[in-house]
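Do me a favour: review this protein, sequence plus C-alpha cells, and tell me how the chain folds. Record follows.
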Amino acid sequence: MKSRIYKLSNGLTVMFSSNKEKPRIYTCIGTRAGSKNDPATATGLAHYLEHMLFKGTDKFGTLSYAEEKPFLDKIDSLYVRYAASSDSLKRKKIYQKIDSISGLAAKYAIANEYDKMMQHLGASGTNAYTSFDETVYINDIPSNKLEDWLQIESERFRNPVLRLFHTELEAVYEEKNISLDSENDQVFEELFAGLFPNHTYGTQTTIGTIEHLKNPSLKKIREFYNNWYVANNMVIAMSGDFSYDRAIELIDQHFGGFESRSVPKFKSDPIPVLNSPVKKTVKGPESEYVTMGFRLPAPKGKDRIIMDLVDKLLQNGKSGLFDLNLLKKQKVLYADAGIYNMHDYSVLFMSAQPQSGQSLEQLERLILDQIDSLKQGKFSQADLDAIVINSIVQDMRDLEDNPSRAFKLLNSFINEIPWNEVVEQSNLMKEITRDDIIKFSLKYFNNDYVVVYKVQETNKQITKIEKPEITPVEVNRNAISRFTKNILDNEYEPLKPVFINYEKDFSKKSMNSEVEVLHMKNTKNSLFKLNYVFEFGRLANQELPFAINLLEYLGTDKFSAEEISKQFYAIGCSFTVYAGDEQTYVSLSGPQERFERAVSTFEYLLKNAVPTKEPLKILITDELQNREDAKTNKYAIRNALSSFTRFGEDNPVNYVLSNKQLKKLKASNLVEDLKQLNSFPHKVLYYGPADTAQVFQVIKKYHILPEKMKSKPESKKFNYRIDNTKEVFFTNYDMVQAEIGWSASYGNYSADLAPKINLFNEYFGGGMSSVVFQTIRESKALAYSSYAFFSAPSDKTKPYNAGAYVGTQADKLDSAITAMNHLLSKMPASEILFTASKSAILSRLESDRVTGNSVMFNYLSALRLGLDGDLRRLIYEKVPELTLTDVANFHNEYISKQQFDMYVLASDKRVSKEQLSKYGLVREVNLKQLFGF
C-alpha cells in the first residue's frame, strides 16, 4: 500500500497510498457520522446534508450572496412554520410561499457550480453516499489538479449554504419513492429493525421517514453539520500518483484552519438478547425469497479476523458451505451469505431463493443447516489454508486500483480499525484456529436470528410522498461566480496523453490461422489473467448459455464438480465462462506459479466433462422458475421493454428458447457444445509476469486445437425500428414511480463522428452539470435520475442509438415528458458549460491510462469497429477544434430531427393510456411479448 497516515494539528486524519500507474488520484472525504447520528425526531438529516453539500457556499453557487441571503432566511423561517402546522390548508399556503420565495432566491443561485468545477478539472465519478456510520464524498481527479481540488473542497466544507432546498428536497422524495418500490430495501429495513430494536441501526433509516421528509428543518440540518463536520471527526483518504510531502503541505494549507471540537457522544442502550427467532414478512409483486441475519460484535480485534474467516467459510464462490451444499448440489435457486461490518456491530446476512415447490420455511432450514455445519466444525484446516491463500491473492488485486486502496484507508478510519491490523489481515488469519471459529459460532449463532420472508402478494400499505406544487427555478447556467472563474482561469502543468500502440504494447503470436495469442507483461505483481475470446455468443447458439451454466455442475471421470471447485480455490485460482449476445468469454486468473495447473485443470474439465441428466433436469426447472420470476422483476421488465422499443417484436431479449425447446435439451448435446468450443476461431489473451515463450508453451500444451477449425457461427440479426410512426410502448407494473425512456436508432458507424459524440454527451446529457440534469432535476425537480445519450455501436455493421431516461413519480409523468421532449427538440446554449465540457474530455484523456488486461480488450473492440488505432487519439486531436455551434448542429441533425419512440413502465392505476396518447400511438406490451416465454 505504501501508506502514510497523518494527523493535522486540528485533528484531521489524512491517509495516503501511492500508486504511480496513472496520473490520477482517487479521493474520499469522509466524516464519521451517518444516519445513526440523526435525531430520532428528524431522521434523514445526514442524507439531506450530503445532498446540500453540492449546492455551494457564500463564495460559489451564487451570483450575490448578500442579495440571496435575505430570501434564504425567509425560507428558513417558513419551514419552521410549515413543520409546526398540522392544518393541511395552512401548510399548503405556507408551501406556496416557500415555493414563491425560493423562486426569488434562485435568481441569485448558480445551480451545479460545484459540478462544473469538477467537470473542468476532469474529475470522474463525482458522487457521495450516506450510510449508518459515515458520509463520504468521492472524486477521481487528474494528478495535476490536486491543488485546485483541495481549494474547492476546503471551500465546499467551510460554510455550506442550503440553497435550492425545496427542489433538492423533491429529489430526496424521489429517492424515498424509489425505496418504496424496492422490495430489497424493505427487507433490509425489516431485518435491521428486528436485529437492532433499540439502536438507530434498526430504529431509523438513512433516507428517513415520510413524516420527517415532509417536515424538514434547515436549522437541524445546520446543527448536524456543526456537530459532526469538524476536523477531528473527518478524514481525507487518497490513493494515486502524487507527492506525499507536497500533498500533506497543501492539505494543511487548505484544511489546517478547520475547527476542531469534541463531537456528541453516541449513546445506545444494550440490545436485548433474542430468546427466539424474530419472523417478519414483506409483501410485493416480485419473486419470493428469504433473508436471515445474526447480530454479531463490532469488527474489532480478533473477532474481526474470525468473522472474515466465517464469511469465507460460508461462501467464497468456489468451496464455501453455501457454494458446495446449496448451489453445487442445486438445492436452491440462488443463495448467498456474507458479513456486513459497521462501527458498532456486524451482521451475518444470508439469503436464498426457492426452487419451484419449495417453501420459505424449507429455505430457512437449509440455511440453518449450513450454520450448524459451521458450529459442528464441518470444515478442515485445508479449508482455512485456502482462505488465507485467496485472501493474499485478493490483497494483490486490491492493490491494482486506486478505489480499492482508498476505501481500505477510509474504512479503517470509519470503523476505528488500527491500520496495521488491516494490512496484516492475511497473516492474522493464520493465527486463527479451527477451534476459535467453532467457539465463535457456538457463541453467536443460536436461536436469536431474524428472518424476513419476502412473499409474492400485493402490498396495500405502501404510500408515496405526494407531489408538491413546485414552480421551476432559475439555474443560471450561463452565470459564473468569481470563485469558480478563478478556478477555471488557473493554469496547470500539462499532462501528456498516452495512447495504445496496437503494434508495440503487446505481442501477437499465432497458434494457427484462426487462433492468435496476445501477450502483455504484468510488472506490478505475480498474478496472471487469461482469457479466451470467441466472436459469437447466445445470438449464434441459443443453447450455449445453458451449456455454460451446466459446466458448473459437471465433473469428469476423475473428479466431481465439488472437487474441481475446491481444487481451484485451494490454489488461489478461479475460472468463469460467460456467453454474451455476440461474444463468449473464458477467464482464468490467479498466482502465476499456479498458471499451468489452472490451465491444465480447466482444459481437462472442458475436454472430459461427463454429461449427467440430473443436474440438467434441475437446471431446466430452475430456468423455468427464473423466467417466471423475471416477469415480476421491475428491472428485468424495464430492460425488456427498452429492447422492445428499440427493435420491436423480434428483439435480443425475447430471442430465447421456448419453454418447450428448453425441456428438450440434452446433456450430451450441451457437453458436446463445450467440447467443441476450442474448435472455433478465437483469441487467447494473457496478462501476467511470464514471458511470451513460457505462456505460448503452456497454452500449446493444454489448449488443444483441431487440425481443421470450424467456421464462426453467424449471429441472429435484428431489425432496428427506423420508421416515421411515433409509438409509446406501455407495460403495466404495480409501482409508485413511472419509468420513461426515449429511443431512436439510425445512421452508419463512422469513427469521424466520435469527437462530436463525446463532446455532445458531456455537454447535453451526461453528468450532474449537464443540460438534462440541470433542467429536469435542478430546475424542475422532476426526477432523482435523468439523462440522455447518443451512443456508438460496438460493431461497425450496427446503427447509432440515441436515447433518454427519466424516473419520476407517476403524477409528474406529463411534466417530465414535456420537459424532456423540449430538450430533445431544442438544446439550451451555454458557453461556460461548453468550455467546462471540452476541458473535462481533454483533461480525462490526458490523465487516462488504459493498462493491464484492458489494453488487449481495447484492441478487440477496435477490431469490431474496423479501426486500426486507439480511437481516443482522434477524439483528443479533434475536440479542441469543436465549437458550441458544432454541438448545436449535432443536436439539430442527430437529435431534434429524429423520431423518438418512448416506453413507459408504470401502474395503470396511476397512468392511463389516454394520458399517454398525447405523445404517440399507445401500444400496450404484455409480458409474453416482452420475454418470449
In short: Residues 532 and 684 are 5 Å apart (CA to CA). Residues 278-400+412-456 form a domain with the Cytochrome Bc1 Complex; Chain A, domain 1 fold (CATH 3.30.830.10).
